[in-house]
Structures are given as C-alpha cells and as structure tokens.
Request: fold
Amino acid sequence: MDFRDRYSEFFEQLDDKFFDEERFVPAEGTLEAEYMLVGEAPGANEVKEKEPFVGRAGEKMNDILEEIGVEREELYITNLVKVRPPDNRDPRKNEIEAWRPLLDKEILDIDPEVILTMGNFASRQLLDTKKGITQIHGRLFTRNGRKIMPVYHPAATLYDNSKTPVFKEDLKKAFGKADTGQKTFKDSF
Ligand code: URA
Reply:
C-alpha cells in the first residue's frame, strides 16, 4: 500500500502549513524490517527521486552498508520530518512536533528490533535528550521498551571524513557485524 494511503488518517489531520506535495518524500522499505533508520528531513535529491537517503549522504550510507554486508532492501528508512525544509535549513521545532505522531505510528507498525537515529535531530527527538551525537553515538539506549542506537548522520562524515570510520564501526556494531564474536547486536542486550 502507498505510504500516504497507509497513513491517511495522519495526513488528513496534518495542518496544511506543514505539507508541501512538491517537497514531500515518503519512507521506504519493508514493513518486516528488523532495523529502522531515522534521518532528519529529505534533501534536494530525495525530493527529486521521492526516496529517502539517495543524495550524497545517502550514497555514503549505502556504500558503507554494502561494505559491511547489509542490504538496503532489508531496512525501513524514514525521516523525522517528511517535507524538505526550504533553503536547506534545519527542521523547526513545530515541524518536528507536527510530524512526530507519524513517526510514532511507523515505529508501532514496523515494530523494529533496533532503531538507528542518524544525527542530532532524530537522536535528540527519539531519545528525549539534549546531549549531542558526539557524546552518545554508538551506544544502545532503551526508551519505552524500544532499543535505540544513535549514530552520526552520514552527511557529517562528508563534512568531516575523520567521522567515517566511527560511523562505520557504529553501523557494524548495530548490525552485529563487529569482530566481537557476538552474532547480532540486538541479541546481546
Ligand atoms: N538527510 C536526511 O536526513 N534524510 C534524507 O532522506 C536525506 C538526507
């Protein structure tokens, strides 16, 4: 079923000022996913393709996932805010609040084993913390019975390549691909 149809109740009650057909990008992925990835908001390339994480940051993420042996098709990939903010600005508090009920519904529906929050916005929102991603990345938290692991936003690794190995190690840990002998990360907690 189409994303908008699946969540028609949400879209019917969403205030028009938070929606823009041209800038809207739905979530992507399987409803059976064990891992849910939550970004911040779509960028220009995502709007063009109507798919999350397909621009430069997305490519970087996809390359690393492939390198560590994770198929994008196994995942559910979504954003905190599903409409691209104008002028590439950060999503605002009222926009995040307006879109939050949809993210909560997606989490209930997917019922993932682990949620990976990418970057400060998604991490602070879902962990209900003011701490920055540098402090909390790669650690497993539990909120309302959900396992949540914050990781750097892949865009951050484009600005600062020294974050790339850290991002990769965190993803390896999250997906149970780290060389610790542990089969899967989610089973070890
Ligand atoms: N950055 C995000 O946070 N989400 C996307 O979908 C693309 C880039």
Notes: Strands lie at 28-29, 35-39, 76-79, 114-118, 141-143, 146-151. The longest strand covers residues 146-151.
